[in-house]
Structures are given as C-alpha cells and as structure tokens.
Amino acid sequence: MFERFTKDARSAVVDAQQVARHAHSDQIDSRHLLVALAECAGPARTALADGGVDTAALVESARARIEAGDALDPAALAAVGIDLDEVTRATEATFGEGALARAGRTLRGRRKHIPFTPDAKKSLELALREAIRLGSKEIHGGHLLLGLTRGESPARTLLSDAGADVDRVRHLAEGSSRAA
Question: Which residue stretches, if any, does this entry annotate as coiled coil (predicted)?
C-alpha cells in the first residue's frame, strides 16, 4: 500500500512517528497522523484551513492531549489500591532518584520503529478505500484526512472538539482529492 503514497502522504506518516516519539508515545495513533497532516503543507492542511480549522491551535491541543493521555493516572491507580507516590518513593530508595523516568526513556530510546495502533491502521486502510472510491491511483494527504475522519477515531474526536465541522472538512478534502 505504501508504494501508492505520494510524497506528502509519506511525509505525514514519517512525521507522525516523530510526533509520537516527541510525546514519548509507544504507538502511533490517528491523532499523531492528524498532527502531522495539520503541520505539513498539502491538500489535508488546506482542507482543514479552508474548513475553518485553526491548524496551529489544533496541533497545540492535540499535542497536549497526546502527552496527557500517555501519562499514568494516579487517581485511577489509587482506585485499584496502588499509591503511585509510594511506588515512586520505594523505587527511588532502591535504584536512585529519577529511576522510573530513566527506565522509561531508555526503553523508548532503544526502539527505532514505533508501531501503529489499530485505529491508525484502520485510518490508513480507509484512506486507501477513499482513494479507490475517488478513482485515484495514488494516496495523498487528502485521502489520509478522509481516512481519519471516515469513521469514529480519536482524530475525528479531536477535530470535533476543536469546533471543526468535520463533514465540511471531509467535503473539502474530497474535492481536492478528486482534482488530484
């Protein structure tokens, strides 16, 4: 499938990996792909902007959500009887200050490839289906945006929460995808 990706679509996939790596995410999900599309010049970013989406604000909000979502939730852990502060104190008493943070960075630093989540894989599959539906031999960023917003996904939720008219954004992305 990736051999059909245009330069902007390939860049978006590579950039999504960088977004995930920067956020210390263990996997690439549809939000990482959306951030990459919003940051990269191309048909997807144009459709977002023409659809009234403030791409800079979208990227900032998405990055904050991604980073917050990957953190341990002390309240959730406490609900099952785990005191995160006590675990941290005991670990640092045994292994030294910052041991948990170092362990997380080392594990992530060794990984060269970051895998896609099922929702990101589904979005890429839907992008291919959108390209086929529109009669395109290639998959570009507009098709990726269509794939991200075709069904329910964290990326679609981010767009909705940002006040975007997702149907209008889809219509604009489809228009640019037909022309390509």
Answer: none
Q: Give pLDDT, residue 108.
A: 46
Range of the domain at 42: 2-70+115-179
> Can you read off the two tokens belonging to residue 21?
């790596």
Q: DSSP letter string over 122-172? A: HHHHHHHHHHHHTT-SSB-HHHHHHHHHHS--HHHHHHHHTT--HHHHHHH
pLDDT computed for residue 106 by the predictor: 44
CA 123/CA 119 separation, integer angstroms: 6
Residues 44 and 173: beta-carbon distance below 8 Å? yes
Number of domains, the chain: 2
Q: In terms of domains, do 66 and 91 share one?
A: no
Sign of CA dihedral 176, 177, 178, 180: positive
- 169: which residues sit within 8 A by CB, 6+ positions away? 47, 48, 51, 53, 145, 149, 159
Below-50 pLDDT ranges, the chain: 105-108, 110
Q: Buried b / exposed e across 43-69, counting CB within 10 Å, b at 16+?
A: bbbbbbeebebebeebbeebbebbeee
Number of H helices, E strands in the chain: 11, 0
